[in-house]
Amino acid sequence: MNASNTGDTSGTDWDRLARMTDEDIDYSDIPELDAAFWAEAEVVTPKQKVPVTLRLDEDIVEAFKRDGKGYQTRINSVLRAYVDRVLRRNDGTDTR
Predict the structure, then answer these.
(1) Burial 33-68 (b: 16+ CB within 10 A, else e)
(2) How far is CA 89 from CA 21, 73, 75, 76, in A?
(3) pLDDT tens across 22-80, in order?
(4) Is residue 18 within 8 Å of 6, Cβ to Cβ?
(5) Neighbours of 8 (CB within 10 A)
(6) In this predicted model, which residue has the larger pLDDT, 6 or 75?
(7) Cβ(86)–Cβ(78) under 8 Å?
(8) Helix axes 71-91, 58-65, angle to 10 degrees
(9) Residue 2 clears pLDDT 50, i.e. is over it
C-alpha cells in the first residue's frame, strides 16, 4: 500500500510502516485493555442502511468523492450530525 494507490495525502511513509515490527511500535500513550475494560464493553451494531436515490449538486458529490472511498459514509455522517442536532434542539430526543 502506498499513497499513490490509496488516494492518501497524509504524507505517511507507507513503506517504512510496512517494515515495522510490533516491537517498533510505541504503545506508551495507549492504555492496555484489561479485564475491567472488557467487563464494561458493549457491542454496538450499526443501524441497517436503506438504499435511496438522491439528487445532489454536482460540486457537493465531487467534494465528498475527493477524499476517496467511503464518500457515501461521509455523506451519511454529515446528515446524521445534522439530524441529531436539529431533533435534539426541537424535542430533546436521541435519533439513534
Answers:
(1) eeeeeeeeeeeeeeeeeeeeeeeeeeeeeeebeeee
(2) 48, 24, 21, 20
(3) 999 998 999 888 998 889 898 888 889 999 999 999 999 999 999 999 999 999 999 99
(4) no
(5) 14
(6) 75
(7) no
(8) 110
(9) no
Q: What is the pLDDT of residue 6?
A: 54
2: left (phi over 0), alpha (psi -120 to 50) or beta: beta
Q: From the CB of residue 31, how many other CB atoms can be counted at a distance below 10 Å?
A: 7
* CA–CA gap between residue 47 and residue 40 (Å, rounded): 22
Which are the contacts of 1, defined by CB distance < 8 A and separation ≥ 6?
Answer: 14, 18
What are the extents of the domains in the chain? 3-91
Distances (CA, A) of 76 to 6, 43, 84: 22, 21, 12
Residue 1 has pLDDT above 70, yes or no: no
